[in-house]
Write a structure and sequence with these properties.
The protein contains 2 helices and 14 strands. The protein has 207 residues and is mainly β. The chain has a single domain (4-193), classed as Jelly Rolls (Sandwich), CATH 2.60.120. The strands form 3 sheets. It has a 5-stranded antiparallel beta sheet, with no helix packed on it. It has a 5-stranded mixed beta sheet with strand order 5-10-7-8-13, with no helix packed on it. The protein has a 4-stranded mixed beta sheet with strand order 2-3-4-11, with no helix packed on it. The longest helix has 9 residues, at 165-173. It is globular, with a radius of gyration of 17 Å. It starts with 7 loop residues before the first strand and ends in a 14-residue tail after the last strand. Residues 177-189 and 201-207 have low confidence and may be disordered.
Length: 207
């Protein structure tokens, strides 16, 4: 299904709206913008955490037709460390958010899969779902309830891969299963090495 040469990348998430919910420093009620670079180009990723209480933001796609949607999330936290991060995402026409997080993986138990072995400078990419994106945008939010409410949140990029007519017809015959994934979606399948990542500061209460 994936056709990388035809893929559309949204690397600069400083284009998310509202613009007054984005900041270059960690502040209450804001997402923190952080520069990065991968082989596809330079971008701006977004961070939020439980202390910033950041609102949802929306990325306009301005495309028509059916696409496979892939999301890139960065789990690094300083040199040599990884952090658990949980993202909520939905199309504007979806009734509810999908919750997206890193797949639990232990090489000794699960086997050797290099694509799942993340380093602090890797961005993990996962297939989210297929959908007709005509008139749609993507909304991002951090979890606010339950055990995930204390988790940090990141979104590094969005990738759209156009579908062929045969793929669209196959999806439509599949009773909606491919277009409506489970509530929990684990990241897998691909990673990109990021360079020049500016580590975000962490907002503290009372500052």
């Amino acid at each position: 299904m994936e056709k990388e040469a035809e893929a559309i990348y949204f690397l600069d998430l400083s284009q998310c709206e509202p613009a007054n919910a984005l900041s270059r420093s960690s502040r209450p009620k804001f997402w923190t913008m952080v520069n990065y670079e991968i082989e596809q180009g330079q971008g701006v990723m977004l961070f939020a955490n439980s202390l910033t209480d950041s609102p949802s933001v929306t990325l306009k796609l301005n495309v028509t037709g059916w696409y496979g949607i892939y999301l890139g999330i960065y789990y690094g936290w300083g040199a040599g460390f990884l952090a658990d991060r949980v993202l909520r995402a939905k199309l504007t026409g979806d009734p509810a958010y999908s919750r997206i997080g890193r797949e639990s993986f232990q090489p000794r138990k699960d086997g050797h899969y290099p694509e799942k072995e993340l380093k602090w400078s890797d961005i993990a990419e996962a297939f989210w779902k297929c959908a007709d994106l005509t008139g749609e945008a993507i909304q991002f939010a951090r979890p606010t309830q339950g055990k995930f409410a204390e988790s940090d949140t990141n979104i590094a990029y969005v990738k759209l891969v156009p579908l062929t007519q045969a793929e669209i017809e196959e999806i439509k015959r599949d009773s909606g299963q491919a277009t409506h994934p489970p509530t929990d979606r684990k990241l897998r399948w691909r990673k990109y090495r990021a360079v020049g990542i500016e580590q975000p500061g962490r907002h503290k209460r009372g500052i």
